[in-house]
Design brief:
Shape: elongated
Largest sheet: 5 strands, parallel
Number of helices: 9
Order of helices and strands: EHEHEHEHEHEEHHHEHEE
Strand order of the largest sheet: 2-1-3-4-5
Structural class: alpha/beta
Helix content: 40-55%
Radius of gyration: 26 Å
Distance between the termini: 22 Å
Length: 244
Amino acid sequence: MSHSILSKILIVDDKAANRHAVCRILETLENIEFIHADSGEEALKLLLTHQVAVILLDINMPGMSGYEAAEFISNDVDNRDTPIVMVTAQGSSPSDISYAYEAGAVDYITKPIEPKALFNKVKQFVTLDQALKETIRIGSQRDRILNAAGEGVLEVDNKGILQYCNAKAAQLLQDEAGNILGSHFNQWFHLRRDESSKPASDRFQQVYHQVIEHNFHKTDMAIHPVNGTTIPIEMNCSTDPGSE
């Protein structure tokens, strides 16, 4: 995992000593930053400017309770997928725990906090957060590279459905990516040789079988964009190493 990827942990508790105790338990996690809130109200304000991996939310606080804060967070479109771990008092009743889940919590931990249990719970959320951010980073990097390419690049699944197109491909197909993605290969491409003798349904399958057999296939095709002006192209097709 890249060391530049940072995961933020929001600790919400009206007692500073409790927040610092949680930090000491979690401080050996890699690439993390702690954000402190001493009330539910402050937590909501911080979430306006911070994307966090997990929220450790105390239930019993003056003013807005942890339950109320969790309900606000889980109903907010920007934060509803952020995992909330409620911190409850030892001996909480089943109804209290059930209410925590109904309010939006995905897990809970009881006081006094058992360090290993807290560490392992939070580690899971941090690992997921960092993996997601790495996936997004790689995807964004790929998009920048492919959109800078002078050639059209398409990704097609084994049924012929277009899954990705770079800016040049959209330009050649003379349509927006939103209309291209999800459409079928045969909608856009024709074989230039012997085209009249090949049924439309055979075009993708013919190319696909060649690629599967040889891992690479070069063929002359013709693009039929929306406006009907045919564009001759040379198509280089290969398998995706990541799919093997």
